Amino acid sequence: MKIMKISKSFRQLLLLIPVLILSWTSAHAQDGLSTVMVMTIDGAIAPASQQYLERAVQVAERSNAEALILQLNTPGGSVDTMNEMIQTIRASRVPIIVYVSPGGAMAASAGTVITLAGHASAMAPETIIGAASPINSDGSDIGETAKAKEIEALKATVRTLTERRGAEAIALAEATIEEARAVSAKEAFEIGMIDFIANDLGDLLSQLDGFEVSVLNESRSLSTANTRVEDIPLTLIEQLLKMLTDPNIVFILIAIGTQAIFIELGSPGGWVAGFIGVVALALATYGMGVLPVNWFGLVFIIVSFVLFILDVKAPTHGALTAAGIGSFIVGALVLFNSPGTADFARVSVPLVIAVALLIALMFTAILGFALRALKAPIRTGHESLVGKRGFAKTDLSPDGTVRVGSELWSAEKADPSEAISNGEGIEVVSVEGLRLKVKKIE
Length: 442
Prior knowledge:
Elements: H1 2-31, E1 34-42, H2 47-62, E2 67-73, H3 79-91, E3 96-100, E4 106-108, H4 110-117, E5 120-123, E6 128-130, H5 144-161, H6 167-178, E7 182-184, H7 185-191, E8 196-197, H8 201-208, E9 212-215, E10 218-221, E11 227-231, H9 236-243, H10 247-266, H11 272-290, H12 297-313, H13 319-336, H14 349-375, E12 389-392, E13 399-404, E14 407-413, E15 425-432, E16 435-440
Parallel strand pairs: 1-2, 1-11, 2-3, 3-5, 4-6, 5-8, 14-16
Antiparallel strand pairs: 6-7, 9-10, 12-13, 12-15, 13-14, 15-16
Helix pairs in contact: 2-3, 2-9, 3-4, 5-6, 10-11, 10-12, 12-13, 12-14, 13-14
């Protein structure tokens, strides 16, 4: 009887499972008819930005998302990376909406072209777009011929991306490149350079509902009235690579790496300082490969550490350390803050001065330890016995045996006229070979 009841309950449970699955599926579907993915690029356009975008597009395509919103706030960056990001956006099977936000953000330089590359584009109030004139990797103006070629190539790119937006939008897009012109969100919207001005993400989704976009030459109407928003955060590696595009972080890595290498060279045999130096300089090299830098500044930084080390060994101290501080500061400013370098690629001057003083204080402390070591009395070998005290183990007449510390030594009186008996205290005056000369103490 009990078996029949258990079997009946089991059958009821099996019948209930499909009902639960259908209920969960229905609730899930009602919770959001579509999914909108959101990613955020805040900072310079660098290779890490392209990797992040490419991964986000893959996630959105696998999830069959309705759209991918790229929230953008950038002062610009690498033209090569910008071109790769444009190719990724235009090849995406999921519509990508570039949204310049939050208030006060910008889509400057390379960010301007990336915004135009979106299948739709929007800006938050009080944001700007433009100033897309090309410059050299070190922040300086490029030569006339090269500049003309680069400008024409970029103008052709923005013309292609703004064809659907009308003549005024095309003219403004070209002006951002040829004349470094920048405009507000309102000005860009009135001309038709962007599609929307949205106060926040919710406002943007509301305006996007029913908007027609062209994805891979196919027209598509967006349905964003009832959506589930999912964020695509940066991975740990992407966060690290983003940090390495900060000139202040790169500068600190250079300071740590160079100092660690010189410490290893000064006292070879250990591996910790050398390992830290190699890792720090390797990470800094990646950052300098992305940022616009003047490599000549490295010469001054290396010279500064050479001066610090020479000051430790010099007969007079202080002048070389002062010269090293000056060389270090000049090197850092030449490396990152050359004339024409964009603000986002500049290192903080107070940080440079603080690090220079910190390194100088450290080398001053090392110098102090070295000087004290030179003036300290000898603490090893037979010479270290001079001044130590013990007691006579035999009568010294004139020689005998004494105990100094835990050792027995042959000894003789330093003053032949002095009487030293067994058990009396003695002090070592000098050492001759394996024999001590001692005097009597009370």
